[in-house]
Amino acid sequence: MEIKELEGLSEIARYIEEIEFKKKSLGGCSEEDVMEKIGDICGMYEDLIRELCDTQSQLEDSAQKRQEEYQKKSTELLESMKQIQEYREHAVTRAEEEAAQIL
Q1: What is the pLDDT of residues 3-17, one digit of tens each?
Q2: How large is the angle between the packed helices 31-102 and 2-18, nearest 10 degrees?
Q3: Is-contact 27 1, C-beta < 8 A?
Q4: For the chain, how long is the longest CA-to-CA vector?
Q5: Long-range pairs, 68-76, Cβ under 8 A, ≥24
């Protein structure tokens, strides 16, 4: 993600550096041309922001899925541990009963 951000910002910076404004016959730049170029730059930033928002949304979705998966596995592990404990207690009780019968 970081590389894409830098590429997007680099592209905008390169565009700004290479801008050439139409000159007015009496000097200065054409206001219409300047406003058009500023609009282009704004559009580039908007595209980059949309891309970053999409990336952030995907990362959040991925993190949410991992969290849900972790929670599910944690619950399964706790249930397995409970079953093992119950089995152990049953085995100990049974062993004690068999030992009592033998003695």
Answers
A1: 455 567 788 888 888
A2: 180
A3: no
A4: 118
A5: none
